[in-house]
Design goal:
- By secondary structure, the chain is of the alpha+beta class.
- It is about 20% helix and about 35% strand.
- It contains six helices and 26 strands.
- Strands 1-26-23-22 form a four-stranded antiparallel beta sheet, with no helix packed on it.
- Strand 2 (about 145-150) and strand 3 (about 155-160) form a beta hairpin.
- It is globular, with a radius of gyration of 21 Å.
Length: about 425
């Protein structure tokens, strides 16, 4: 699930980083201090001080879209045109476009020649990359579809819904409920995965702001195990601290280990018997999302606010994966391993995209990153996906931006069919 900065002056809270590299540790701490100080300065009416601190934060930890957006916003507000243009150029260098409201302010606040240059650059960035086929259109009666799993034996899809609060089976172009909306107390459903023997479907659940009709009901989050043949719930694991947690996504390894990300609790758990056991807890985690397995049995975690983490399942070591200076991995959501690469949806920047990431032999550094899908006709906010036989099946237009608290559509917004896209990897 995407975390949005609806107001660009929402700053992340100060937190401590425990990365194995001391320089990253101190950089994160200092950057967060500057961001926190900038928020305080802005609230006290000192725009210039806020801008100064944000620029320092950007120098320490560059390529963060939230920091860049805040710099652009305040520089335009204070008439710091040179700074605004520099950040606008940085967006272009990173292959990103500022949010529309800031883009309008930018164009209104710079000379005509500069405006035309940025329009040309951003138009090129907005160009479509890749192609995909529409495999299925989920009816608009099923709202805010988030997750997907594919059963290769019978060519069946399973999709999860946040607002309709169900899990649905798509077989022979027909949709039927596996778990129906208000017939349960699980809340909304998110990540889905099927075990290597194609016997059981696992589904994460949680109650969040977008979950309808849950007032007064206990908040729960965890994972279900569903027998695919009988379509019965076999087992439920629930976190004890559900009030401060949201189990978001999961991965099942080839040897049957099951790991879960807790986006609010900022941790990764493993299913051990009847328990959810915390395996990785890190104060540097901001919003854990997708998980992928490496060939050597370790894990890669997509963190919406930080990028990628390497999780060593033997030593419990946690390492922030290095990236190049012209790459931002902020806003990663879904994550899967395919052959010797990672595939990820990146919906926390504009335009949203699907990328392939190659890591070094130790899985500690990004060697290359390639956009394989961007600005496809069906995209609004792509979320989770599954991969089978080198083919991606993806939720292309979850429609998160259309919804507000309680699962209510925003004014003038309409739920449309949700498209499952099919895309062949090279």
């Amino acid at each position: 699930m995407i975390i949005r900065l609806i107001l660009l002056l929402i700053f992340s809270s100060l937190c401590v980083h425990e990365d194995t590299r001391a320089s990253d540790d101190q950089a994160f701490i200092n950057s967060q201090k500057h961001r926190h100080g900038a928020a305080t300065a802005y609230q006290n009416g000192d725009r210039e001080k806020a801008l100064e601190l944000l620029i320092l934060a950007d120098k320490i930890r560059p390529n963060n879209p939230a920091v860049m957006g805040n710099i652009l916003f305040i520089s335009l507000e204070t008439g710091a045109t040179k700074t605004a243009k520099a950040i606008a150029e940085k967006y272009a260098t990173l292959g990103m476009i500022p949010p529309q409201r800031l883009l309008t302010q930018l164009y209104d606040g710079i000379p005509e020649t500069d405006r035309r240059a940025f329009e040309k650059a951003y138009t090129a960035i907005n160009a479509q990359i890749g192609t995909a086929e529409i495999e299925y259109a989920v009816p608009d009666s099923l709202k805010l579809i988030e997750g997907i799993a594919y059963h290769p034996n019978n060519q069946t899809f399973y999709v999860s819904s946040v607002v309709s609060k169900g899990i649905y089976k798509i077989e022979n172009d027909q949709v039927s409920p596996l778990i129906e909306g208000d017939e349960h107390q699980y809340g909304s459903f998110f990540g889905l995965d099927i075990d290597p023997e194609n016997t059981f479907l696992y589904a994460t659940f949680a109650t969040i702001d977008h979950t309808p009709n849950m007032n007064g009901k206990p908040k729960r989050t965890g994972v279900l195990k569903i027998d695919i043949d009988s379509e019965k719930i076999i087992q439920t694991w629930t976190l004890n601290d559900s009030a401060n947690s949201q189990v978001a996504d999961l991965v099942i390894t080839n040897n049957g280990q099951i790991f879960l990300s807790n986006s609010q609790g900022k941790a990764v758990y493993e299913i051990k018997g009847d328990q959810l056991v915390k395996r990785f807890k890190h104060s540097g985690f901001m919003s854990p999302q997708g998980l992928a397995k490496t060939n050597d049995g370790n894990l890669i975690l997509a963190d919406y606010g930080r990028g990628l983490w390497h999780l060593d399942t033997s030593t419990q070591n946690i390492t922030l994966i290095e990236t190049s200076e012209n790459l931002s991995l902020i806003g990663l959501d879904g994550l899967k391993a395919s052959s010797n690469r990672l595939v990820a949806t990146q919906n926390g920047i504009q335009p949203a995209r699907v990328i392939e990431i190659e890591l070094d032999t130790n899985s500690k550094k990004v060697v290359s990153s390639t956009i394989i899908a961007k600005n496809l006709a069906a995209f609004d906010e792509p979320t989770l996906f599954d991969i089978h036989n080198n083919t991606v099946f993806m939720i292309a237009n979850s429609q998160w931006p259309k919804y507000q608290k309680g699962g209510i559509l925003k004014d003038k917004q309409v739920q449309k069919p949700t498209y499952i896209l099919k895309m062949k990897l090279k």
